[in-house]
Structure formats: structure tokens, C-alpha cells
Amino acid sequence: MTEYTEIEMMICVAARELENGATVGVGTGAPCAASMLAQKTSAPDLVIIFEAGGICPELPEMPISVGDSRTFYKAAMAGSMGDTMEACSRGLVDYTFLGGAQIDMYGNLNSTIIGTDHQKPKVRLPGSGGANDFASFCWRMMVITPQDKRRFVEKLDFRTTPGWLEGGNSRDESGLPLGSGPYKIITNMAVMDFEPETKRMRVISINQGYSLTDVQENCGFELLTASNMVETLPPQENELHILREEVDPYRYVIGR
Amino acid sequence: MDIIDQGQGTLFADPDPDKAREFFRAKNRKMENKVMNLKDAITKYVHDGDYLAIGGFGANRTPVAACHEIVRQGRKNMGFAGHTATHDMEILSAGEIYNRLDVAYVVGLEARGLSPCSRSYLESGKVKVTEWTNYSLTARLKAAAMGVPYVPIRNIMGTDTLKYSAAKTTKCPYTGKKVVLMPALYPDVSIIHVHEADVFGNSKFRGIAVSDLDLANATRRLIITTERLIRHDEITINPSLTRIPYILVDAVCEVPFGAYPGTMPYEYFSDEDHLREWMAVEKDHEKFKEFLSRNIFDCKDHDEYIARNGGPKKMRELRAKELLLHKEV
């Protein structure tokens, strides 16, 4: 059996979600690794877009910043933040990957504060950055995150970034672009999507080595389960080889 | 116009386009030599209480030398646009130069982690904070650049980011769709670092623009720091390469390696060791004080800071890294 780590697992699973020819707005770290892996496996024509303005680069190595020079190396265009975000707003960008300190059952994210006093928070986090923009505009938002109870919470301390808001039709009614929203949540334990009516998080596949009980016990809210729940396809030999040798040889992401 | 929803945050800059027009009416249009040293430019154009914006993207084409000079001169009570603010914010937080902050991205240094100094300053309660997003601040600068009081966009609705912003939601009179209005942001003063500028301020830079084109148009006063001064005829021979025209510019300062320890595209990559040192030393109050003395307060200028952190040899290493020479076979 092939050995792999949980971060390698999440990156491989995320990469498979990106079909050839799609556009994806990415940040640094695992999202970038997943997008690069997709380009080198099943989606050679995947278009990577960075919020600071890099459009369709040939990433020579992992960027440290979404605005560093790697993000527009041999790119189609070194544009602006407006170029990127307005392409997203017009509906040209299919996917984005985000993260956060907290996520709730509707896929809303918190990356602003821990605590309740906004002007004097217990922990000040970076804020939205481009997360709210990407999640508002891109057709399908995905999250790559380790799963634990502190992160998967009943109630966010601050709703920085929109998921399905309060579920049901609430996102459509909010004024955010119609038809966009959270799509998949990829953790070390499972892959979740959202039940179409209630828009609540739903387990669709469970990673090797974990059970549904593990997944639920590491989640602060009740998860729904798909009727045809399966085991997540583990990372394949060729995916791991490319990830380790070509995508992240210095282990910036997979070595964490 | 019916307001459906609005944020409770404070608006730190007046979006009134006529007040901005009055300012721009009086702005100098002469094509004259604006070269001065950075110290004088900061003294002349950056004042206590001003609203400040910094170009580039955190630690990429960021006017780091200017941030140091602002801290060295002890500016206080400023407003600050925390737009993609990473290492620039870390420096300005160390000097506690601002007390009101528009947040899009703050405190973090992306993949590098969070700055303990920026974090504790924001957690102290000494800073008044209004929330936005990266694109919201871009849109606010765009509105100012257009000379209109706001632009309607379609993010942040349904979130606490809207609740703690100063944006307002209304219905579009054409489509009936909800839109969120982003108030124009006219900074009092901004600083943008570029590759090349002539003595009048006509500026060229390479790589991504981030939000600098809108910022250059939106800001009342603009200081350009440049890696190199060039002859004016290098501008006029191909004016399609000019990113910022001289009429927007108040001062031009030649500061080689002016974005160090950040990245300057095609020139030098970020000094990750030094950025790590910053974040590590911030955890210890006494050590941080010594560190700031050594790197900012006891430095006469950016040249001295560079000399204290590896000098020309280090700059050559960072240049090799930026040019990916390790990949040449």
C-alpha cells in the first residue's frame, strides 16, 4: 500500500475536483498545490488566477505570497486586483479554494476575529483579504481544512465570508450573485458537499482510516450523510509522485 | 434611494467628490523636477492624522523604505488602508503610527504566519477598525479615481464583514437586484514603489499592478519611490509603458532596493530569513525594541539598513533567487 500524509491526501482529492479548462482563483499553500497538481495530471489547461493580478502563470515553484513574482511567471498577463476580482464578478471564474479559523454547517467562514468584541478581540486574524470576494463571486467555493471541533463550529465568532448563509434560499435572497456558493469541503477525514434543499453540510465520502463516527465526533454540528456514501479514493502513485517531485519538491506545503 | 442594510463601521475618509475636486483643482500641474530625498518627502507630505495608503502587495513592490522613514519620524494618529497589508503593516504597527484602520487583509504575512506585533496592537483596543475586503478597497479606490462618491458591487452581503463595514446595501434601479455601495476612498497621502521614474514623476513598473493605478489616481498626494531615476526621453520614447503620469506625483525619491526585504519583480526576491527574524523577535518586547533600534531608528536611511542586513552580497543573492538562476541548467 502506498504511504501518504493527510495533507498529501487532501491536496490529491482537491486536485481531482478541477476539470480541464476550468478557471480557479487560488491562494498560497494547499490550494495552489492542488491546482498545480491538477495541471500536471488531469487538467493541463486549468487556468490559475491570483487575486493580486497574476493570470494563467506557469508556476515555476510554490509562491510565498499571492502577489510575489512567481504568481505571474510566464503568465498570460500581469494584471491587477481589479482584473482578477472583476473577472470573478462577471462569472468567468469557476472555482476557488478558501480556508478559515472556523467554518459552520452552511460553509460560512471566519477569518476575522476569535472572541465577541470586534474592537477588542481575543485574537485578531487577517480579515477577509480576498476570501469574501472569491466566495461571493466564484461559481464553486471549496475548502481544504483539517477537521476538528474547534474549527467546525455551531456558531462562528464572525461571519467573514459567505457560504450558504442561513441555508435554504438565504444566499439567493441576500443579493450575492445567483448560482454561486460552497461546493465541497475536503478534510483529512472526509469529503462533504451540501444537501441541495437545506444547504447543510453532508458527508459524501470518508477517507481511509476514518469512520463516520470519527468525522461526526470531530465536528461541532450535526452532519448530514449522503445515501450513497463511499470511501474516498486515496492518493494514487502517480499523483503522489508528481506532487512530491514536481509540485512541491522543497516540501513548503506537504512538509508542514 | 432606499437603504436596505448598512454597516455600523466608521467611515474614516470623506467620500465627497466635490471636496476632492477642490483639492485637485489646487494641485500643482507643473512639469518640474520633484526629486528629493525620502526623509524630506515624508516630512513634507506625510502628516500626523493623515489617512495613508501604501502601494504594492504587502511584501511585493512595497515602499518599505518609506514605511521605515514614517516610523523613524514618529508619525501618529494616522488612518491606514489595510489593503493587502503584511510587512508594511508590521512596520507601521511597530511604530504605532495609526489609530484607525480600514481592514481588508491585516496582521498576517500570508504563508509566513501572523505578526505578533500587528496582532497585539489591534488586540489592545487602541485602534478603531472598520472591516472591508481586498476587492472592496480596490472598488473604493476605483470610485475615488472615477471622481464619483461610490461604486456598486456584489460582495459582502449576508456577512458580518458588511455589518462591521461602512458600506450600504440598496436596490439597483435598473434590475431590482441588491447591490452594496462602496464609498470612495481618497487617501490624503500614498506611497508607491516603482522600477523607474523620471525627475518629474512619470513612472514605470513591471509585473502586477495590484491596485496601484487606482490608488495613484485616488490619492490627494503621492510620493513615488523608485529603484532608478531615468531620463525623461526614456518615458516619451514609449509612453504606452508609463503607468503613473507626472501630474499625479508630488515627490520622486530614488531608493535602490526600496522594497527590501520584500520582493521587487525582476530585481530581487524577498529576504525570507530577515522576514522570519522580524516575526520571531516581535515575541520578546526587549529584543524587539533593540531590533527596531538597529534596523530603523539608528539607521540614517535605507542604504544603512541594507548595509546592516547583508549589503551588496545579500542583494546579489536575492537577485539570483528572483531570476530563478537556481533553475538554469
Please explain how this structure is put together.
The complex is a heterodimer of chains A (256) and B (329). By secondary structure, chain A is of the alpha/beta class. Chain A has one domain (6-247): Glutaconate Coenzyme A-transferase (3-Layer(aba) Sandwich), CATH 3.40.1080.10. Helix content of chain A is 24%, strand content 21%. Chain A contains 7 helices and 14 strands. Chain A has helices spanning 6-16, 30-40, 81-90, 131-137, 170-174, 212-217, 237-247, and strands at residues 23-26, 47-50, 54-55, 77-78, 95-98, 102-103, 109-110, 113-114, 123-124, 140-144, 181-186, 190-194, 201-206, 224-231. In chain A, the strands form 4 sheets. Chain A has an 8-stranded mixed β-sheet, with helices on both faces. The longest helix of chain A has 11 residues, at 6-16. Chain A is globular. Chain B is of the alpha/beta class and 329 residues long. Helix content of chain B is 35%, strand content 19%. Chain B has 13 helices and 12 strands. Chain B has helices at 17-26, 38-45, 64-72, 87-94, 116-123, 134-146, 160-163, 212-218, 232-236, 272-281, 285-297, 302-308, 311-322; strands spanning 3-6, 51-54, 78-82, 98-103, 128-131, 150-153, 168-171, 178-183, 189-197, 203-204, 221-229, 251-254. In chain B, strands 2, 3, 4, 5, 9, 10, 11 and 12 form an 8-stranded mixed β-sheet that branches. In chain B, strand 9 and strand 10 form a beta hairpin. The chains are: A alpha/beta (256), B alpha/beta (329). Chains A and B meet through helix 3, strand 9, helix 4 and helix 5 of A and helix 5, strand 5, helix 6, strand 8 and helix 8 of B.
